[in-house]
Amino acid sequence: MTTTYEAPGSASAPGGPDAVTAVVAADFETDEYEADFGGEAPTRIPSSEGVEIGPRRGVRSATLDERFNIVGSLAGGMALATLLFGWISPLTGVVGWFVVAYLAFIGFYMLLVSMRSDFQEVKDRVATVLMVSAGVMLFGALVFIVVYTLIRGSEALPYVNFFTQTMELTGPLDPLSSGGILHAIVGTLIQISIALAITVPLGIATAVFLNEVGGRFARFVRTIADAMTALPSIVAGLFVYAAIIQLFTHQRSGFAAALAITVMMLPIVIRASDVVLRLVPGNLREASYALGTTRWRTVWHVVLPTARSGLVTAVILGTARGIGETSPVLLTSGITAVMNVNPFEGPMISLPLQVFDFVRSPEPTMIARGFGTAAVLILLVLGLFIVARVIGGRGPGQLSDRQRRNAQAESLRDLQRITMLDDRIYAGDYPPARATQNIVSTAPKPSDPEETSL
């Protein structure tokens, strides 16, 4: 039986449009409809009524089988390493035990996973374990360094004079209750402030030039920045010593040390900022240009705010590189035990250089002062990182609590103003009577109909 399709409202469609709709609906299930309309039936969306939705699957949690593989492999690796180092072979050493245990753990884990999985899944599981192990190892090394430094420096940190005095009147044999590192803290803050004042605008401006302008010279600058990233710190110190101290100042100073730190920080900031600015979507720039803005207004109001958190990270990386430098500061700033707040006159010591000066002494009190100074340096760096994150850690478009409250208050004021205007218009008080009179007086007078007819 062949069903024919008639247009709605046509004379040959008995029953009118409803009958035609019923005919078409019946034809959806027949082959004749597909033959009449090119061999393809229209797409129908299935109804979700009556379909039960099961529990949400947790893709981040490990199954019991995966946990068994991890725990069993770890226990087997530790047992095998203990047998090798204590019973079977004459192996010794804690580091060697950990290496053997880890290698045995990887082998047992591959064996257990291969019992129920194919080779591709085995490779995936082993790669995941290796990446997680690398992250745990790096985090553990960082925690070990911080904790060890704080523990060794706990002998000097409880003394208040350690933060409020200098080493001007303190000798190597004096107890920890005498002397401090105030002059080194002040010197570090002054030197890193000068270096940041030079590096941040110059580095970000260079990155903007590399991304927004480009050209052959931009490629040359990017190559030089890449090469300077691996520049040894002693070379930077020798460069500043020969170019600044020997030719101009003829003395070591905090400003010369800040220039040496700048040489070390600048390529880091340039390369990190360059990578961040490349990640800004191009459609944001195109939208800004479509609104009629210039290139530099687009950079200032669109590109830089979008990449703000990444630029802060670039500055943090540069600061971490510069604040811990010792060899260029040793060549350019000199060592002193007195307070010096003038970066252009006389030697000015910093915290890394003070640590070097303390730990080279054989006296236990001086070594304790050295670890205490290193602990202060770590805490200072962490404090600077926290401040930088608070200032620029928010993403583009994210408002602070104060900005959100100000925007809400402004919206309420606009709503009140619009509501009052609507009330005045409804009451007939707007526009004002004086303005209405002015409009009426300046309006052209209508011509006389009789004059118009004449």
TrEMBL record:
Q: Is-annotated flag, keyword Amino-acid biosynthesis?
A: no
Q: What is its main location?
A: membrane
A GO cellular component annotated for this chain's UniProt record is:
plasma membrane
Question: Which UniProt keywords are present, listed alphabetically?
Answer: Cell membrane, Membrane, Phosphate transport, Transmembrane, Transmembrane helix, Transport
Q: From its record, what is one biological process in GO terms?
A: phosphate ion transmembrane transport
Membrane topology, from the record? Multi-pass membrane protein
Segments crossing the lipid bilayer: 68-88, 94-114, 126-151, 181-210, 230-249, 255-277, 298-320, 371-392
The organism sits in which domain of life?
A: Bacteria
GO molecular function (one) = phosphate transmembrane transporter activity
Q: Transcription regulation: present as a keyword of the record?
A: no
Q: Which segments constitute the ABC transmembrane type-1 domain?
A: 185-388
Q: Where is this protein found?
A: Cell membrane
Identify the InterPro entries for this entry.
Answer: MetI-like (IPR000515), MetI-like_sf (IPR035906), Phosphate_PstA (IPR005672), Phosphate_transprt_permease (IPR051408)
Family statement: Belongs to the binding-protein-dependent transport system permease family. CysTW subfamily.
Q: Which PANTHER family match?
A: PHOSPHATE TRANSPORT SYSTEM PERMEASE PROTEIN PSTA
Q: What does this protein do?
A: Part of the binding-protein-dependent transport system for phosphate; probably responsible for the translocation of the substrate across the membrane.
Name it.
Phosphate transport system permease protein PstA
